[in-house]
Amino acid sequence: MFTTTGSRGLYKAPLSKGLLLVLSGLTVMLTLLPQYQQLFVYNLQAVAQQHQVWSLLCGRLVCLDVKDCFCSGLLIYNFRIFERRFGTRKFASFLLGTWCLSALMDFLLAQAFQFLFDYEVEELPAGLLAPVFSLFVPFYRLIPRVPVTQVLGHIHITNKSLIYIVGLQLLTSSPFMWLLALSGLISGGLYHSNVLWLQKLLFVPAWMSYIGRYILEPIFSSSQPSSETPLGMGATLDIQRQQRMDVLDQQLLLAQYNESTSNNRPQPQSGLLQWTRLLFPSLRQRGQNRPPVEPRPEAETHPSTQSPLLDNSAVAEEQVALLVEMGFSRTDALEALRASNNDINMATNFLLQH
């Protein structure tokens, strides 16, 4: 389910990759060197009373808890889809804007909690947690829900369920994590809705984006996967099969054009392409509702030109039923089995590829 929001790794997501590598590396270093952890404690009282700005900056970037770092890293990896959709600069502007808004919201919520319950909140969990929680706002509003399965017949599992479970795990990891979560959700809602033109006030400048593009992006960029699929989020099996059919149709048209323009080309031997043309002249016409092709009368068919692959050889009903259970139409299953001489593996491979 983690791959439902993108199956290309960290390709075209240099900022997400940089955050994962740098912040996770700093967390590991602070775990090995505990004497420096005090520099990264998110202490509200030190910031408000002693004006320790560095405590605010460091405490809201690096996680001191390995579990928090792991959960937030998983969420950043899944939210990389927004960097691909909107671009690195807009994604960075969202993180910067929600970081600034949530910093102010942290103090307001802490003061409200002290006023209501007479309890002073001194420290909050450290790390880039509030901006990560703020990304749940566009994730909830922009990413469609795709049903995956059901549990006990009533609980619906979607492509977003596991990500919400990881967010819930992060929410329950510390006593005052709920305050950061609430701060992040409020700031994410304000920035995403562009209240008071926040997107025009809090953004990454063009010169900073230019520097990051030519200095930092080559360091954290990932190469394009060799087996990358052009399918987007929420693509179904029918869409995949239709796109494969379009590609094969283009190849068939190109082959026919080459045959018509080449006068001295020798007759090609029988192979996959030839029996594909005979059995599947146009893959866009395949389907459950396609009328069956009426066989030619024997008198009109020359015995020397009749393809041995189109004979009425017996096809095992068990193999046809097996292919129909896989999702293929009965017509396609019969044609593929006859063409492959009742070889179930060859017929399955052809139907899956086309």
In summary, what is this structure?
This protein is mainly α and 354 residues long.
Description:
- With 354 residues, the protein is mainly alpha-helical.
- The protein is 57% helix and 4% strand.
- It has 17 helices and four strands.
- A two-stranded antiparallel ribbon has the order 1-2. Strands 3-4 form a two-stranded antiparallel ribbon.
- Strand 3 and strand 4 form a beta hairpin.
- Helix 16 crosses helix 17.
- The two termini are 26 Å apart.
Say how many strands there are.
4
DSSP helical segment count: 17
Secondary-structure element order, as H and E?
Answer: HEHHHHHEHHEEHHHHHHHHH
Strands side by side in the biggest sheet: 1-2
What is the topology?
Blueprint: H1 14-32, E1 42-43, H2 44-49, H3 53-59, H4 66-78, H5 80-86, H6 88-117, E2 123-124, H7 129-134, H8 136-142, E3 147-151, E4 155-158, H9 161-171, H10 177-192, H11 198-201, H12 206-220, H13 237-261, H14 272-279, H15 317-325, H16 330-339, H17 344-353
Antiparallel strand pairs: 1-2, 3-4
Helix pairs in contact: 1-4, 1-12, 4-9, 5-6, 6-10, 15-16, 16-17
Question: What are the key terms here?
Answer:
two-stranded antiparallel ribbon; two-stranded antiparallel sheet; mainly alpha; elongated; 354 residues; 57% helix
